[in-house]
Amino acid sequence: MEDGDPSAVPSSPLGLVPPASEPFAPPRPRLVAAGAPAAADGDHAPAELEPRQAVIAESRRPRMEEGPPRRPLAVPASRASSAAKPDGRKKAAPPRAKKLELSDAAAHRPPHGSPPPPVPVLPACSVDSAVENAHDLFGTLPANNMIKRAERPGFCLIGSRVTVLVNRYITFCCPETIINMYKVSVTPETRSRCIKEALVEELVKISLGNKVIAFDGTHIYTITPFSFELEEEFVVSLNEGGSDGAPRVSYSITIHFAKSLKMQEIVEYYDGERSGVSQDTLHAINVVVRALSSSCLNAPRTFFSTKFGPIIDTKEGLELWQGCYKGVCLSQYGLDLTIDTTVAPFYKPISVVTFVGEFLGRTDLSRPLSHKEYAKIERALKGIQVETIHQPDKIMKYRIKGLTVVPLKELMFPIGDDAIMTTTVDYYQSRYNLNLEYIHWPCLQCGVSGRQIFLPMEVCKVVQGQRYREKLSTTQAAKLLKVTCKRPQTRLKGIMKVAKSNFDLGELTEGEFSASGFPKMLYGSVLPTPLLKYGNEENFMPTGGRWNMVNKKLIDGGKVERWACLNFSKVAALKVESFCTQLINMCNDMGMVFEGQPLTLPQSTKCMDIQSALKALDYHTSELFAHQGRHKRLQLLIVILPEEKGHYGTIKRICETQLGIVSQCCLPKHVKEHANAEYLKNVVLKINVKAGGRNAILQEGLPFLSGIPTIIFGADVSHPSPGVYSPSISAVMASMDWPEVATYRCVISAQLPKQEIITNLFQVTQDTNGCVKTASMIKELLLNFYQKNHRKPERIIFYRDGVSESQFSQVLLHEVDAIRKACMSLDEYYLPPITFVVVQKRHQTRLFPFVTTRDPEPKGILPGTVVDYGICDPWGFDFYLSSHASEGSCRPTHYTVLFDENRFTPGALQSITYNLCYTYARCTHSVSIVAPVYYAHLAASRGRSYQGNFGDGSSIRETTPSDELPEFLQVPKIDGNISVVMFYC
Questions:
Q1: What is the mean pLDDT of the chain?
Q2: What is the pTM of this model?
Q3: For an engineered disulfide with 34, which of 98, 250, 862, 920 has Cβ 3.0 to 4.6 Å away?
Q4: In the chain, what percentage of residues exceed pLDDT 90?
Q5: What does DSSP say about strands 834-840 and 728-735: parallel, antiparallel, or unpaired?
Q6: Do 700 and 530 form a contact (C-beta atoms < 8 A)?
């Protein structure tokens, strides 16, 4: 059987075989009114077609075609019938749909080369109507600043066709269904979601007649409305803090009717009668489906259970639980239910003493905890729930607030009416006849509302089923990766098993929602692999998204004449010298020009004197240069890091913001007399770009961009960890070397914590003297581009990471406007067309290769696989691209085009995006997201490492306005010698 032959139906061990009549091209789903006559066999296409150009205004710029001319997209004639007649009258609208009927077959792409099937097309609407629907679609926005999102111009028509499976199930809803939304207010106010859930659960039992509801922490959703009309107040009692033994506290719960969410809204959306589906409706469907399909009042997006697989012990106080993700979203074929398997760490249900020993990796538990161990254990235990084990007939549960400062043997508290002071050790001896053993360790501090409770660690056990949310250690992450990395077919079988055994897909919610019985099967395209060029004039095409540096030289080798080495580790000096010699030889072999001897011999120093050692070295080399009559600096500093972690940020901050020295840090475990050649090559790739060189370029440049000067931006925002007072760090990258697009410059800025919009793209402020100042990251990078190329960029492509769908409207409104203002600040007539693309990796859509008799065990999705039909936004311009080599199941990157003045066709933009994934300088394989976004992520992390530790910032917030960032939290200015190279690599 030939691949792609529609006459031969491939068999699948999973039992996923397309219908025999039309193996890969089922009819497009239609909205059918109840009682309407059934269409004749084969009557799937409309009798008449309406050109897409009739409903979408043409741009002043022609689209960039990637292949043969595309046929106009079309919509059914029934849609066109609602258009106005020549005399201005409108035809009567067809009967409103009573039932949403979708094909039970899996959704597919049309055969390659054929025109795309008709897709829903949003009718052109006036600005007034767009503003009217702005609240439903985007939330509250200034009506006069509305920017319309880019619409889909078509589908990818380049590359070879491929069949893929997706972990999505076509979902059906009854149009008559109405979900009632009620706002929940609790007095006294509590931020604890667990307490809110317990209160609502108790309320349902005693006052709401055990109705089937769903709760998301703020609102109650129910299909059957409550008996009261608008608002009702209830009183529910609960143990304070949710702890056993705590006094009962009465809470006043107010249930207020918010709105009715009609599923008919979805039908009207696909009928073209509405411009969008409100976020409230989609959120309500998600909450209801998750809760009811799992028989849980408040099921999260991902929930874990032993029924999904065995528990895996990490031997470090944690265990790995297998779980399931579920979520509903819109696609071209209606609602989709996404189901995926996942793994997460949980606390082991063991005694706290055993947990401490395993977590710290200690076998000797007789020693007191060091300051570092104390902080680590307190951070791990704070907030989790424990139960007492010293009274078998009376088990009490408490939530840990922290650890006592003094050890158990020194801890005293008053007892009895006379408030006689006694030690905790004596209390447990006299009260429970218990001799405490670990008296040199601190106590667990529990209790609420000033009622302190001190519990020795050895009388407590960790309650089962609590998620561990701290960052995993290297060994823990390796074990987690080993469990999650499965062969594609193994993971797909697991998803189907979960869907079949844990979800009644036929009747998810008692007939209100249902889903198809098997995943979607779609057509995708495999984009052509780009040619790469290295310094020895060798052009080659990577295979499988990977290559190596064997017999290859750097396209532009950097030159390093002045360098030194500092050793902060315990590695012997002779080994460090040998390592440096091997590294320099490798640099020269790969095409760099590197002086063989350092300015000073490799120096060893204590890790506690890092700042002094760096400044002393800079002073010594400056004196040496002055002696020689040269006003120069070190070009490169090789640093052997100390064995203890936590010094990397200090080294980078001092070198890059104070001394102006490019540094390359190496872990001591790699510093050997005979270092690994692959490791040395990877280090050379980083050193070369830090020295101003380039590793490789695309042989033919970026497709569709070679003729017009184009600047490519990448942007990301890094947010502080929970409980840490620190600013959000934004980083914006911009390509400098058009048309090769291999080198970038960056600007890093600090902004208010948890703020996703990049404020300094273009900002106008006034100082204390009333002088107007502008801060523009975009303007600075545009000037850098002009200085390098002596031409203004005539086209802008902006890739933006870290934006969720709920933030699309804000980003579109503020950041696109900021880019435009930055351009006009250079020249009021300078208006280059902008394409703004959001990059998303945090989603649960996965692609799987289709199993055939010719390939019963496919390794994975091929790099370059793009899917833009069947799982994408019904109206928007988006696509899923798998650009990296993956032998396991593939999580593609989701690219959403919010704004497109360049009028790219899908194939053109997808090819540009895919080619950019081969230009990442730090490795020899294609990466999963575009290189500029990857660089922006590195730069934002670098800016984060410049920041100090200010605890929770409570004292700072008291003296600083909430809308201002303290001066000391600003990112320090990067030295001019550093900012011109890719120092963040």
A1: 80
A2: 0.82
A3: 98
A4: 44
A5: unpaired
A6: yes
